[in-house]
Design brief:
Blueprint (H helix, E strand, L loop, with lengths): L2 H17 L10 E3 L8 E4 L4 H4 L3 H15 L3 E7 L2 E6 L1 H12 L15 E5 L11 H19 L3 E8 L4 H13 L5 H4 L3 H25 L4 H7 L1 H14 L3 H25 L5 E4 H17 L4 E2 L5 E4 L7 E5 L7 H15 L4 E7 L3 H13 L9 E5 L2 E2 L15 H15 L9 H21 L7 E2 L2 H4 L7 H18 L14 H11 L1 H11 L2 H21 L8 H23 L10
Parallel strand pairs: 5-6, 5-11, 6-7, 11-12, 13-14
Antiparallel strand pairs: 1-2, 2-4, 3-4, 8-9, 9-10
Helix pairs in contact: 1-3, 4-19, 4-22, 6-8, 6-10, 8-9, 8-11, 12-13, 13-14, 15-16, 18-21, 18-22, 19-21, 19-22, 20-21, 21-22
Amino acid sequence: MSLEKEVKKGVAACVKALYGADVAEESVQVSATKKEFEGNLTVVVFPYLRASHKGPEDTGREIGAWLQENVPAVEKYNVIKGFLNLTIAQTQWVDLLLSISDDEKYGFKEAGPDSKLVMVEYSSPNTNKPLHLGHVRNNLLGYSLSEILKANGHKVVKTNIVNDRGIHICKSMLAWKKWGEGATPESTGKKGDHLIGDFYVSFDKHYREELKALQAQGMSEDEAKEASPLMKEAREMLRKWEQNDAEVRELWRTMNGWVYAGFDETYKRMGVNFDKIYYESDTYLEGKELVLSGLEKGIMYRKEDGSVWADLTDAGLDHKLLLRADGTSVYMTQDIGTAKLRFRDYPIDKMIYVVGNEQNYHFQVLSLLLDRLGFKWGKDLTHFSYGMVNLPEGKMKSREGTVVDADDLMDTMINDAAEASAERFADMEKEEAAEVARMVGLGALKYFLLKVDPRRDMLFNPKESIDFNGNTGPFLQYTYARIQSVMRKAGAYDKSSAKSAIPDEKETALIQKISDFPNVLAEAGRSYSPALIANYAYDLAKTYNQFYYDHPIMKEENGAQKGFRLELSRVVGRTLKNAVALLGMEMPERM
């Protein structure tokens, strides 16, 4: 039993014994004592004033005295207004450390037969260009959230919806037909997603030139867009695709195949994966059927031009287009069809969409439409809405000059890590140094993007993220590597000797920080916040380094104290590694 649970149990028994009131143990409010006050754990006594019929300080003193007398873990207490601060006996901290050390996955819960099934959707790329900086934050948030939910005992299905059809895809296809000269990833030496992205840019370049020429002939911008031969060809290609034209479909499959291979390479390097991938080309027809069914039932309506809409004004929203006049679908239609297929494929208890906050309105509408179409889970879907990530002006440029793609960003991070760590890696073989640079560069990227509250916009500076002394991934990795170095030097040691050690204030603070991991993990799962895990890991690493500088380990002559400090270090290292693994970070054994 953890010390926190022991105190909660004691308080519940105390209130019953002193005041005759029944209190649920889980309702007892216990937290770490603030640094400015004496004590380790603080109990909020305000909820018990009605039962005690006394003021907060008198009630606190009575409960404190009872706990000191009846709960072995409580050594002494003090009361500050309505807060009871408890000091835990030193021997209890050693016992707590040793009990934690026996549990290699301390804080983690295993999924059972009755566990909830949560589906998390993230990534959602288009097959007309590479993954970019926005996708990086999306993928890291989605993967981390999935891992946190799994660690909280949920069954999790990680899923991706690939937007593989539409006019934007046809633009790349048409550009390849016109100017590609048969180019392939093999013939050009380019990743498939980059190659197709180049053709998308090429289409846009020719299209803009065409608009400029048409406007020079006296057309307005809107008239030029309507008259553009290039855009007409792209629209015609989309119509042929929807009519299942054999030639268009074959080219579409070939070019998308190149892109998928490129995406897979990027995902693998980023360290994210999926259990199930859905494709818009498979789901949009399901969505169209549901919309047309809703039209028959009077849930939707058709305008004179043939387009189909939903009137959501009674819910405080507006009218939403679901099928265009030519019968083609929109993103909302696809999402309706995808939702239907997912709930058909899996017994989902919770559906979470990891999508940027610019789509808040979209998911309000999706939830409402699914509910109106008769899907009981419509109202319960969750939009994990996150802010945008930007780079300082001039820090990085992509090959397109406008958007930083994921591969360029990862290259930069790994190169920066190698440069910043050249002296640290001087005694390593070339291959090992390169592998550690990869871990450090990607660790810096992941930690910096995930330590911020996901709901906030953020500025990501690659150089700032690779700092071995700040609130960064490399600082955590260096702390872990330091601990592994200590353990290697120590060799075998007698863990049981730690039982007779007497920890001081900094050592008990470190044990308390370790013991708090299950609470942090549970709260990160409840609030969908990888940032809580990131900041916990930083606090743990910082607390360990303070201990490390003040407490000799290898030079300690007392065998019990040395064994205790080695075991304390080992458990800190394990906890750090388990925590940052939830962020997708890897820990090098030496740096």
